[in-house]
């Protein structure tokens, strides 16, 4: 299977390059970047020295890429708003598209506009797209032409929480989520605020009270609940490169901790990338960085009646590029873990 | 005024040594540590080289310290359980005691036992002690003989939250607090789990669901509310040395953001160590480390009806040693900021 | 090929576990640790959750391991002094041994005793052992029964420097090497001095003037020079987890920078794990962590007549476990890069 | 004494603002920054919240500043090339100038041009300027009108090395200096290469083989030696905010370690900001950050005949702003440590 990565100069794209260049069933045919066009991949991504020395970044436009016969699938690692034009050309040309941007994550264009501050770039194409959380989506998704990868925060939240909401084990109100993300979540930055001396030895909340990822989190939870679910989501920036630690406080709807764990086991016991930890063990970003796993555990506080659920993932792997490859593997009927750990 | 620091080899004690040795109205007369007795202060705390080269750590026992005529006030930087015996001797000898341990923070011995797993070491002395949050305690505290310094997490939570609870601006239910602390909060450690390679590039929750600091947080909130207040408190360990970033999600009790800010202004406009930031600015631990300040701001989410309040402090200064000195300053009638920034 | 890892609970062993469990031509049959015996590998090495959940740490003694028919090769990730006994039993039983300790790195037992402070644990076995720097050793090594892996610092120094010494391009005097190592180089630590708060935001030299690794560095350089070579080696501890940045200052023996690069090209142009960077590019530990590469470049200072050579490697991969696997691959005649990147 | 800080928005200027606003004998009258003019000091330097809330950054030009009657001394924290014009106006107006830039550090304009790539901006003013290393300069300096502060690297190198060169205890050849600097040494940066994710977990050399600071290091050493001294200087970037760890390898000129220490004691025993550590103790940046100290120690390697000397300082304090204030204190005849620790 021949693949292209569009917009590969950011951290998400870089991680895709690393994973796909080692994937046993994929040949990387094109790597594009407007700003790095003409440069060797291994000079922009020095970790690829000795591996991709002969490949150059291209500056192919959407039409050119769509016309390429040596490309079967394209991964879009572009900013929201920019992905849609590539997606349109590629889908029209019969290519499959795995989109890591936000452009096709939300089925309601009005919600997209509310959270992203611009009208949706291609409403028609939305109908051909599917938001794919590999462990949670039902089979129909594989028939679609465009697969929208969930965002990094949403993955760390929906994997533990969505089945509980769906099963009615937890309240749909008073859900509070706090996430602590490594700085790569902000992308490659050239702003003073993201310089080493400013981020190091610093912790802070940001994006309050209405971070963009709320749009897809709430849409997915609402679908699962068959009811409107609104949550409080408080993201924070942590002085580390990678990883998201998420802590969810949610009132139990009368369920016990055992019932929560039973539901998790039901959903995930055969899922290689979801690791259910004992209630006494707390997930740690350190142990998931570099893997495609979500680790998660829960406690119940009898004083408050709340469950406190914690999860950890690598924002660049399970939260982005690894999950994109997991989608490819499932779509192709390959072992879900091919090229992933 | 002549001071002793009892148990000065940890991070809290070290910070006290630094601050008191530069305090213009205090002479440091004794610095004790069982494990470091006989060693020069500047070899245990190398930052003090050239400043305290001639002072040695002592191993004075409670009776010896209490008998010293050259000591007016003692700061106890000891583990909970160990402070009470020193406090008893010192108070009986007519010394003032500023205690940084948990031993006299909670007025109800049953709560102490519930959270600290041992019966209270000196119930009688509790009556002579006062939990002093300098910005919030009323004047009577200065008459007591023992001043209990609030914990690091409680300070970062109670400063922003307590006045709002007291004024009835926020709900007493569904309060969720997430805090993110630098690793010095765990003290000087020789466990593998706190070694550099394990903590670096790692974020995780711990102490769920019933961290010890809950005992004093809930007691203070309950007194302010004149009602039982129970909260969810989720502490996290961050890969940085110092600082606590706290995020409080609390339903508004019908109050507007303007009313919240007005209440804060009423309480704190003349308080030098509380900095009320605009709603659009998020506190950052980086900017408070080394200072005795709490920075704080709030937003209101009209979708959920919640306030999201964030604060930042230095866990070793405002969360421990700086606040202890602030208490000394106020008790003595000195300018509150003497020896502090 | 069936493999055992002896002493797998440290960082070197952990990296071996990760690499060998994904190696396409190796089956991991046993993982031992005295302190962790009986515990699941994935609880001691949480990164292996979902991968090695069913494997337990063993506490097999040397004789037991040697008697195991399902083991063809053993990797020893033990402290110096402890490896020799395992090596003896395994070699006597006809197993191949790849030893990551220092026990068989130095051919002269007197030098071993001088630097390691104890008499050599098994002088006879030394004759069956070979110090294997895969890019530099000649073919005979593959006939030996025990392969001694070079140390982390020596690898970063010898790869760039040894060919230049051998070719007579540089002086054998006034060689000064400064290395900056991530803290994992000190192993898993439970000392206060290696706790997060002490190492973070700290840089310092240590081990001056006679670090143990000097013994193997000087022996190898002296063999290459056919003359006694003594160097100044200044190791430093850097506040990061992994990676070594080495800077070598060495007077040119009349050679030009072009001649230096020509020599490097001659030695390494077909070596997949040595990356010669242009003189204007400085190696960075960031780009080699996770890989088995040494990146290196050099400048010449016409004012001093010195070459300044810099290299970077991952101390746990090319400096330890990756190199051990590279040795396995070469010994077996497999592609050198199998299971490595 | 009334002071102005010109160019106060960088890390050096910020440190000056903090130190001078707390200095008991200085009143800060003006703080300038072209890019931040009009903004409150406490919004640009949030650590100053509550301390300098009412002061605004100015955009005063050189003539305006020179005409201000309320300014006695000006600290220039400007880039090289930009400082000279301010210095000229201020000196002509009879103000004293303490210049933290490189413009007046080198007495030979040809050397300035060689290293800074531009002709010297004001050769005439050089005659009125003095390079002031407070512990090493002789008394005449206080009569000059402009005091040039040494650079950060040079301070960490010259304090330990210069007296040894002057006394003939060490060779003037084969001197190799490796320094490892925190990232604040590169100033406030908005380049991707200095973003958190790029610097964190990374170590590398840079500026080889002819870093700008060589010009002042070699000029000072040559003056002390009364002979031309050329050294190899290898600076490195470390993943930490502040601090420089310097390691000097220099052949002994027949001197013993005791003679080296005796010379240091002779020079520095009464100097409050130079701390001579025992030969067995290695300086650590952690213990000097926030102070104006240089910590240093030395070993002798009898195998090579070299001394290996290590030092540590805070690049922003002793390496810049603290040393500038130390110069002010000495010039004014105040206690050298006023406002410093």
TrEMBL record, chains A, B, C, D:
Residue ranges of the TM segments: none
Top EC class, one word: oxidoreductase
Catalytic center residues: 152
Entry keyword set: Amino-acid biosynthesis, Arginine biosynthesis, Cytoplasm, NADP, Oxidoreductase
UniProt xrefs under NCBIfam families: argC
Catalytic activity: N-acetyl-L-glutamate 5-semialdehyde + phosphate + NADP(+) = N-acetyl-L-glutamyl 5-phosphate + NADPH + H(+)
Entry keyword Oxidoreductase: yes
Main function: Catalyzes the NADPH-dependent reduction of N-acetyl-5-glutamyl phosphate to yield N-acetyl-L-glutamate 5-semialdehyde.
Residue ranges of every copy of the Semialdehyde dehydrogenase NAD-binding domain listed in the record: 2-144
A GO MF term: N-acetyl-gamma-glutamyl-phosphate reductase activity
Protein name per the record: N-acetyl-gamma-glutamyl-phosphate reductase
Subcellular location as annotated: Cytoplasm
CDD domains per UniProt: AGPR_1_C (cd23934), AGPR_1_N (cd17895)
Phylogenetic placement of the source organism: Bacteria, Pseudomonadati, Verrucomicrobiota, Opitutia, Puniceicoccales
EC number: 1.2.1.38
Major location (coarse): cytoplasm
Gene3D superfamilies registered for this protein in UniProt: Dihydrodipicolinate Reductase, domain 2, NAD(P)-binding Rossmann-like Domain
Gene Ontology BP term (one): L-arginine biosynthetic process
Listed pathway(s): Amino-acid biosynthesis; L-arginine biosynthesis; N(2)-acetyl-L-ornithine from L-glutamate: step 3/4
Alphabetized Pfam families for the sequence: Semialdhyde_dh (PF01118), Semialdhyde_dhC_1 (PF22698)
Gene: argC
Family recorded in the similarity comment: Belongs to the NAGSA dehydrogenase family. Type 1 subfamily.
Example of a GO cellular component annotation carried by this entry: cytoplasm
Organism domain of life: Bacteria
Keyword Transit peptide appears in the UniProt entry: no
């Amino acid at each position: 299977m021949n693949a292209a990565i569009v917009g590969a100069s950011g951290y998400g794209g870089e991680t895709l390059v690393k994973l796909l260049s080692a994937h046993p069933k994929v040949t990387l045919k094109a790597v594009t970047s407007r700003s790095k066009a003409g440069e060797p991949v291994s000079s922009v991504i020095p970790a690829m020295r000795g591996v991709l020395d002969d490949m150059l970044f291209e500056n192919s436009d959407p039409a050119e890429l769509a016309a390429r016969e040596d490309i079967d699938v394209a991964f879009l690692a572009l900013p929201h708003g920019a992905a849609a034009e590539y997606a349109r050309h590629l889908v029209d040309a019969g290519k499959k598209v795995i989109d890591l941007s936000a452009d096709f994550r939300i089925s309601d264009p009005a919600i997209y506009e509310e959270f992203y501050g611009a009208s949706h770039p291609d409403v028609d194409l939305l109908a051909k797209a599917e938001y794919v959380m590999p462990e949670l989506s039902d089979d129909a998704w594989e028939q679609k032409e465009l697969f929208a990868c969930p965002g990094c925060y949403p993955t760390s939240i929906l994997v533990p929480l969505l089945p509980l909401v769906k099963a009615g084990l937890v309240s749909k109100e008073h859900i509070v989520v706090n996430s602590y993300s490594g700085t790569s979540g902000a992308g490659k930055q050239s702003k003073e605020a993201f310089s080493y001396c400013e981020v190091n030895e610093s912790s802070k909340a940001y994006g309050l009270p209405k971070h963009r990822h709320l749009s897809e989190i709430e849409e997915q939870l609402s679908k699962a609940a068959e009811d409107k679910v609104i949550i409080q989501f408080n993201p924070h920036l942590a002085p580390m490169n990678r990883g998201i630690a998420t802590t969810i406080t949610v009132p139990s709807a009368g369920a016990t901790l055992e019932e929560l764990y039973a539901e998790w086991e039901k959903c995930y016991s055969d899922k290689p990338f979801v690791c259910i930890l004992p209630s006494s063990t707390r997930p740690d970003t350190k142990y998931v960085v570099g893997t495609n796993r979500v680790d998660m555990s829960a406690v119940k506080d009898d004083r408050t009646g709340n469950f406190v659920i914690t999860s950890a993932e690598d924002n660049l792997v399970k939260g982005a590029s690894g999950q994109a490859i997991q989608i490819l593997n499932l779509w192709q009927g390959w072992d879900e873990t091919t090229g992933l750990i």
